[in-house]
Amino acid sequence: MASALLGAVESGLLYALMAIGVYITFRILDFPDLTVDGSFTTGGAIAAVMVSQGYSPVLASLCAFIGGLAAGACTGLLHTKGKINGLLSGILMMIALYSINMRIMGKPNMSLLGTDTLFTAISPLYLMPFVVIVIGGLLVCFLHTDLGLAVRATGDNARMIRSFGAHTDNTTILGVSLANGLVALSGSLITQQTGFADMSMGIGMIVIGLASVIIGEAIFGARSVLRAILAAVLGSIVYRIIVAFALRVEWLDASDLKLITAVIVIVALFLPSVQRRLKQNKVAKKRSAELASMTFEQPKGGERNASHF
Amino acid sequence: MLHISKVSKMFNPGTPDEKIALMNINLHLNPGDFVTVIGSNGAGKSTLMNIISGVMAPDHGEVHISGTAVQSLPEYRRSRWIGRVFQDPMAGTAPRMTIEENLAIAYARGKQRGLSFGVTKRKRAFFYEQLQRLGIGLENRLHAKVGLLSGGERQALSLLMATFTEPQILLLDEHTAALDPSRAELITTLTENIVKDMKLTTLMVTHNMDQAIRLGNRLIMMDKGRIILDINEERKKTLTVSQLLGEFEQISGNALSDDRVVLG
């Protein structure tokens, strides 16, 4: 049990960068970016090819990040300059990346057994907290710079930030690239940890990212950017713990995982709105009962007055 | 300061919905002018604002700000000359960001946005001092999310954000119209003081006739995409609302029809 828990924390930290990427597009830019499913694999593919050819794992991870940046920039360009709907530009890029990823790897899957990766010398459990803190910290700082504020305002009130002189096309492209860079970096880390890259490793990644962000926000809150990024990281870990528990249930298969993920996201999106509606109904009932009792008393007063005459 | 010559704009040209929004508009504002703009629905007031700020490009004509031809520059590049407050109190601020972050965004108007921190100690002190001028206690809520403010508070903040970096031109687009009367009065007073203190060249669209006469040193009236009346400071001093309405009827042949018009 303890080892399963540690394993969950470990993969939670590896996927945390992906969750942070999804937080940037989904929450900051208010842009549901499906490129993630493709760019995650792109990161894995670049890392697998480079590491297996003997390049330094650090360089390979960096190149994976850059590959993700490029993929995100393409999605951003399609959406802003091409005026294509955000969801559709993500889907288009995701499909295009499938072929590109195949070109990068040259075959549908690739093993890294026997090669040196980032995690050969040091366990992810020790290295990843450090990596996540540094990258998360840098991102929090960036989001408080003049440029970062402009990116955040783009998702919050695009008209306002244009009137203050920021080019919202550029800030959108910047945000989407950065997000996909982090997603690809996460993909490269997963490949190096499992020693395996596969064409289908990115499928459903966007939903896992959303699940992490939403779970994190629900449990830890998202009042400031720092809190929200922390929530994405912790949400990613909690998600892996939920998955670890789900897999221990006898009648569930590993292939049921995607269904479980979808259900988690649906419940997480559904619950707050139901709660709000119930609360509103309750308040409305109480208020209208109050108002009704007030109007009921008035005619009584009128009658009394009438009897005086 | 602001020079508009022969500007025309048409919507949906060549379709049954074709509409002339502006027809051959000429307007010149001297530095420090505070011009109020009134007119019926669809007179072209908002289109004029949008053309000056660069939200739309004119079909014809030129717009000069401080001697620079700007008619082909996009909105984000013109913003270094222009401060703007919208009618919708939600439009001028970013609700999920804090008051000081919103001010930092406004502070960076006309500058290259780089990787230095948006809110620094020095800037925070400056923001505090600026917010005090509004006199509504926002200076003690620098870390509050703007989404938590009331419409009036948000509009006061928008006004400050549009003006504290001393724009060459200030555009006010019915910026008190969506507020209740007491808050509208507060924003009007703040506007008057800020414009006077900073000697801003201002163009203010309003549907409040009394406000249009009371504020500023010049009044223009628009109808069907044209400027039909231009009243200078001398005449404005003795002008009354009924005179203004009479004048409108005489020139345009119709009664002033603005469904939100406030006669004051």
UniProtKB/TrEMBL annotation, chain A:
It comes from the Bacteria. Pfam families: BPD_transp_2. GO terms for cellular component: plasma membrane. It is found in: Cell membrane. It is a multi-pass membrane protein. One of its GO terms (molecular function) is transmembrane transporter activity. The chain crosses the membrane at residues 12-29, 58-79, 86-106, 126-151, 172-190, 202-221, 228-247, 259-278. Keywords: Cell membrane, Membrane, Transmembrane, Transmembrane helix. This is ABC transporter permease.
UniProtKB/TrEMBL annotation, chain B:
The keyword Nucleotide-binding applies. Pfam families: ABC_tran. One of its GO terms (cellular component) is plasma membrane. InterPro entries: AAA+_ATPase (IPR003593), ABC_transporter-like_ATP-bd (IPR003439), ABC_transporter-like_CS (IPR017871), ABC_transporter_ATP-bind (IPR050166), P-loop_NTPase (IPR027417). Keywords: ATP-binding, Cell membrane, Membrane, Nucleotide-binding, Transport. It is a peripheral membrane protein. Residues 2-249 form the ABC transporter domain. Gene3D superfamilies: P-loop containing nucleotide triphosphate hydrolases. It is found in: Cell membrane. The keyword RNA-binding does not apply. GO terms for molecular function: ATP binding; ATP hydrolysis activity. Coiled coil: none annotated. PANTHER family: NITRATE ABC TRANSPORTER ATP-BINDING PROTEIN (PTHR42788:SF7), TAURINE IMPORT ATP-BINDING PROTEIN-RELATED (PTHR42788). This is ABC transporter ATP-binding protein. It comes from Paenibacillus selenitireducens.
